[in-house]
Amino acid sequence: MSADALDTRWDGFLAKSRERFDELMRESKAGCAALLEQTGGDPTPLSNAWTGMRTRALGLQSKISDTWGEQVQDKYHDIEAYDRADQAWARAEALIDAIEIELQKTEIEIFADALRSLLRMAADELAALRCSQCGATLETRVVLQATDVSCHHCGALNTIEPGPRARMGVAMSHYLWAEACWDLWLAKHHAERAVRDARTVSLAQLQAWERAEIDYWTAWLSEQAKLMPHTADIDKELRGRMHLFYVHFEREKAWIQAGSPRLIKGL
User: Is the whole model's pTM more than 0.85, yes or no?
Assistant: First the structure.
């Protein structure tokens, strides 16, 4: 079989794999939305359903790699079309990466929508709260932690505990900040892939990844503080998240030779 014929068959297989994945994601979004409505916002059935969908999607990823290694690569090598083989596998890697990105995006969308639904219900629960001193309606907003609210009528300080719906949403809360920071996550992902895929990692690539990590987590932590006010020390939390990142960088030759030029000092 010629290299052209191999390319045609391989690209056809990749196109069908992408088609199956896209259909699976459409089914996932529709099914999870319907399940959320049926269960009144309970995240447990939603999480179980998504786990099954995610497993099927990861199976598609694995099938691409397995099919290449078991059925396709050797055919290119048999006709000594090594460059064409490299190009064909690069197209497969691009699809595998695209599936990873879309899978992440879909998961975030599904659970961020679920959390918004719970927060709307939580807002209704708060509407009935009254000041413990004078009985006036408290003016407050939904948060996912206990918070103190001053009564606008008498000034008494009231501790407001999250209601049942808000507590149900805590486990999904990170999806809301991730959704708000999606573009930064994508930039972080691409910067990381550039380092992972490089034969020789450069200092510029490492610094681009470092900058992307800092930008993403700074924005993520800022979003988190909106619903979790007690996590508002963004600098402290950022330093904690970047610590292990820098530990990993200390194994990179280009980084060490440059004197470990960290943007966040003292870690």
Answer: no
